[in-house]
């Protein structure tokens, strides 16, 4: 029994994902050596950073058994907002908190629609997607351009050891905080409890609605961080900077082993999931395949991973069913 | 036995349209196990949900450990020393045992400016509790990997993390094996010996007599009696539980009962049903009695092919019958009307006629796959008249009908399939008195037309009033059979409550 348990705790979704990742990286080392050029790796790390930061927020939302499909549009709005402030010469130290606040406010709106007005999360966030996208052309026609050097400081000047993009450092800080938060905070237990069994959580004295709204707010702040990284990458910010990103975030979360039914999911899985998704486009590029394939490949990887983890789950369930009867009988004797 | 730790006076609780509890009195001493017993729907569980703050009482007082209290959620109750172990477990499947035990009141420690969860302290506390319960459960195991008995153990351990001195068990043995029950009783007795007061809700006589010190009977939401176990007998308790007189009138008309039409032999489904044999004759109303969870619905659903094929043989009109799914059952003339109208019976956002035609759209076809709405409407009108559905037209939304009329639509839908055997599961649950009488009349008329009916009901007077014969089920087997002439409520209850051991001996 004990041996079995050890084996089971070792062969997790995260383990298989990491294995897959290593295999692909090794394959790329042979088939597309240019993939490992410094330029490509640094650009990949930057993409990975903003995907992971948002995916952590999305992961929390999905654990509560909700969803957010408005993230892409929300990031577009925050990008423009950041650019508008940045145009006046506000430095990065001011842009980051402003964007986080803006993201949190917009995401809190989603949370309130879902809890106070009892609109299903997918419907509420579909509606806010339209609202965000509808507001964008009203704010700015096309784009904000000729942004000052203070705006693009993060992308061009802030390098760790003179080479690694500073966004990686932000991502590292966010991830470490998230890891600690999800393990050691009372709040995280509430998030998991709600996703497992909302009625049970209520019976245990958890304020379900409040917890969901706060979760959306935290996620929104994280979306805001991603928006800053995306917006400050160039001197021009258009009003479609975030379009479609929500699918990448959701994909990273699902790929990382979080159940869309809610109640389970780990940050580590999301880290690997985000890395795989960040890697697909450049990998395809360096393998000499048409970039038009990258979305299809993303889709295929998600389907395969969900099917594989589903099959594993079924098998596990069967084994456990047998085991538990034996164990229960033994415990009673 | 010590002082009074829980007192209830004149507790009243109403739900919309139902008086669930009407003046309940109850008291619990420290170091005793006090049973609450009553029939299905007597209000046992509701009472305990009031005590622990899931429901709020309309009036009455509750005194816990000497102080008057009124809890608004179970967490408050836990903190004041009252723990409840729910019938359906309230655990979080994907989370660990440890997380479940301390959810909502995790132990914390200071780490710099932050309050973080102190897993070490929680582990030590859990270790102590498991030792007290003399049990071993892996603290990091997810709940979904545990068996029922272990889940229950986690619930008990959770209750003890609060230092509770009152623990309520709501039908804890419903899904346990005999060995697990013995182990559970040992634990309950240990808890009692350490001075806790235990409330034990059950309708299993043998358990109450084995385990408890006193017993309070409630019936139809009313307080009936409190007795010392040593000074009472099973018959006394059954009499208290039944109590009411047969007042209502049942329009059972004499029908000519014909030959055997449906026969089941040696029906068996691992874990649910064991060795069930019964038959029903043409024009007969056959009743199935039993307590909740006795396996009546499971048996009928299995026969109709909902749950896959179980072992056993069936004959319909003398010919062997094989049913793999419900469609086959319908084609053979066996139609089932579910106890849960909303979930399985009707699509309430569709009209009466649409609901009736839904199982057999083939018959309402016009041209290459269009729906003949005129024919559908005629059929709907026909049943509105025949069954007496109170609706202005057949294209009236089912959602806008009363419970009784919805039930009539359910029956119409079944009748439109021209069944030979109609299985009605709790046909009058949740309908008012008048609709109930009308449904009884419809059932009676149908049998006069030669239809055969199997009826499951938890209301004994209804079964006794309507049925020609009644089978009594318990724990997935048929525990007895009575003819119309010599059945009484007491006889049925005695069989339904009898333990397996007694059955084998007798």
From TrEMBL, chain A:
Coiled-coil regions, chain positions: none
Membrane-related topology note: Multi-pass membrane protein
Domain of life of the organism encoding this protein: Bacteria
One Pfam assignment: BPD_transp_2
GO MF term list: transmembrane transporter activity
Subcellular location: Cell membrane
Regions crossing the membrane: 42-62, 92-114, 121-140, 160-182, 212-231, 267-284
A GO term from the CC aspect: plasma membrane
Keyword entries, A-Z: Cell membrane, Membrane, Transmembrane, Transmembrane helix
UniProt name for this protein: Monosaccharide ABC transporter membrane protein (CUT2 family)
Organism for this UniProt entry: Faecalicatena orotica
UniProtKB/TrEMBL annotation, chain B:
One Pfam family, short name: ABC_tran
Entry superkingdom: Bacteria
Annotated GO CC locations: plasma membrane
InterPro entries in UniProt: AAA+_ATPase (IPR003593), ABC_carbohydrate_import_ATPase (IPR050107), ABC_transporter-like_ATP-bd (IPR003439), ABC_transporter-like_CS (IPR017871), P-loop_NTPase (IPR027417)
Residues covered by the ABC transporter domain: 6-245, 256-500
Keyword Cell membrane set for record: yes
Protein keywords: ATP-binding, Cell membrane, Membrane, Nucleotide-binding, Repeat, Sugar transport, Translocase, Transport
Membrane topology: Peripheral membrane protein
Compartment annotation: Cell membrane
GO terms of molecular function: ATP binding; ATP hydrolysis activity
PANTHER family: CARBOHYDRATE TRANSPORT ATP-BINDING PROTEIN MG119-RELATED, D-ALLOSE IMPORT ATP-BINDING PROTEIN ALSA-RELATED
Protein name: Ribose transport system ATP-binding protein
Organism this protein belongs to: Faecalicatena orotica
């Amino acid at each position: 029994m004990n041996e079995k348990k050890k084996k089971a705790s070792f062969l997790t979704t995260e383990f298989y994902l990491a294995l897959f990742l290593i295999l692909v990286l090794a394959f790329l080392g042979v088939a597309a050596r240019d993939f490992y050029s410094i330029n490509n790796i640094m650009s990949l790390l930057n993409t990975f950073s903003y995907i992971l930061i948002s995916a952590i927020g999305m992961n929390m939302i999905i654990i509560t058994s909700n969803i957010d499909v408005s993230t892409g549009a929300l990031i577009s709005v925050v990008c423009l907002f950041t650019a508008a402030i940045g145009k006046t010469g506000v430095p990065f130290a001011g842009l980051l908190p402003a964007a986080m606040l803006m993201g949190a406010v917009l995401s809190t709106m989603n949370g309130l629609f879902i809890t106070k007005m009892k609109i299903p999360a997918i419907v509420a966030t579909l509606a806010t997607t339209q609202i965000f996208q509808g507001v964008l052309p009203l704010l700015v026609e096309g784009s904000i351009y000729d942004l000052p050097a203070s705006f693009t400081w993060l992308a061009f000047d802030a390098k760790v050891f003179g080479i690694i993009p500073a966004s990686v450092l932000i991502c590292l800080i966010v991830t470490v905080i998230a890891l600690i938060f999800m393990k050691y905070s009372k709040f995280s237990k509430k998030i998991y409890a709600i996703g497992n069994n909302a009625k049970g959580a209520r019976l245990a004295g958890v304020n379900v609605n409040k917890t969901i709204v706060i979760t959306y707010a935290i996620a929104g702040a994280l979306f805001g961080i991603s928006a800053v990284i995306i917006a400050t990458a160039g001197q021009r910010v258009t009003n479609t900077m975030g379009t479609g990103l929500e699918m990448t975030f959701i994909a990273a979360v699902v790929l990382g082993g979080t159940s869309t039914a809610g109640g389970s999911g780990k940050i580590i899985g999301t880290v690997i999931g985000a890395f795989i998704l960040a890697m697909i486009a450049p990998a395809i590029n360096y393998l000499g395949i048409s970039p038009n394939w990258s979305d299809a490949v993303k889709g295929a990887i998600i389907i395969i991973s969900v099917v594989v983890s589903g099959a594993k789950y079924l098998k596990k369930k069967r084994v456990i069913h047998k085991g538990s009867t034996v164990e229960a009988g033994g415990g009673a004797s | 036995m010590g002082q009074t730790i829980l007192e209830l006076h004149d507790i009243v609780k109403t739900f919309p349209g139902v008086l669930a509890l009407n003046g309940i009195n109850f008291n619990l001493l420290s170091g005793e196990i006090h049973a609450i017993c009553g029939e299905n729907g007597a209000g046992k569980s509701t009472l305990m949900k009031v005590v622990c703050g899931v429901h709020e009482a309309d009036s009455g007082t509750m005194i816990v450990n000497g102080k008057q209290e009124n809890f608004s959620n179970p967490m408050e109750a836990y903190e004041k020393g009252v723990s409840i172990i729910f019938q359906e477990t309230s655990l979080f499947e994907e989370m660990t045992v440890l997380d479940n035990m301390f959810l909502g009141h995790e132990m914390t420690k200071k780490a710099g400016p932050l309050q973080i969860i102190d897993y070490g302290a929680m582990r030590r506390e859990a270790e102590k509790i498991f030792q007290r319960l003399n049990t071993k459960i892996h603290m990091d195991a997810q709940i979904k990997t545990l068996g029922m008995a272990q889940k229950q153990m986690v619930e008990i351990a959770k209750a003890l993390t609060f230092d509770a001195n009152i623990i309520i068990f709501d039908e804890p043995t419903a899904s346990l094996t005999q060995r697990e029950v013995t182990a559970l009783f040992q634990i309950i007795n240990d808890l009692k010996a350490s001075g806790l007061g235990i409330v034990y809700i059950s309708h299993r006589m043998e358990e109450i007599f084995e385990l408890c010190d006193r017993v309070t009977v409630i019936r139809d939401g009313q307080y009936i009696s409190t007795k010392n176990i040593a000074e009472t007998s099973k018959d006394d308790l059954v009499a208290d539980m039944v109590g009411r007189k047969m007042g209502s009138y049942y329009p059972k008309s004499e029908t000519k009962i014909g030959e055997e039409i449906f026969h089941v032999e040696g029906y068996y489904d691992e874990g649910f049903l064991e060795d069930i044999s019964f038959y029903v004759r043409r024009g007969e109303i056959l009743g199935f009695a039993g307590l909740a969870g006795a396996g009546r619905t499971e048996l009928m659903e299995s026969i109709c092919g909902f749950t896959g094929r179980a072992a056993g043989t069936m004959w319909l009109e003398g010919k062997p019958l094989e049913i793999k799914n419900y469609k086959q059952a319908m084609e053979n003339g066996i139609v089932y009307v579910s106890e849960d109208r909303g979930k399985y019976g009707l699509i309430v956002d569709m009209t009466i006629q649409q609901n009736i035609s839904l199982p057999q759209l083939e018959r309402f076809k016009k041209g290459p796959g269009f729906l003949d709405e005129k024919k559908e409407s005629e059929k709907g009108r026909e049943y509105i008249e025949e069954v007496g559905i109170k609706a202005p037209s057949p294209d009236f939304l089912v959602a806008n009908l009363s419970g009784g009329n919805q039930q009539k639509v359910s029956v119409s839908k079944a009748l439109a399939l021209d069944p030979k055997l109609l299985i009605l599961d709790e046909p009058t649950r949740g309908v008012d008195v008048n609709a109930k009488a009308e449904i009884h009349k419809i059932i009676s008329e149908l049998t006069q037309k030669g239809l055969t009916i199997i009826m499951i009901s938890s209301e004994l007077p209804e079964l006794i009033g309507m049925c020609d014969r009644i089978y009594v089920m318990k724990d997935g087997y048929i525990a007895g059979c009575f003819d119309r002439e010599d059945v009484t409520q007491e006889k049925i209850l005695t069989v339904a409550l009898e333990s397996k051991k007694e059955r084998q001996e007798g």
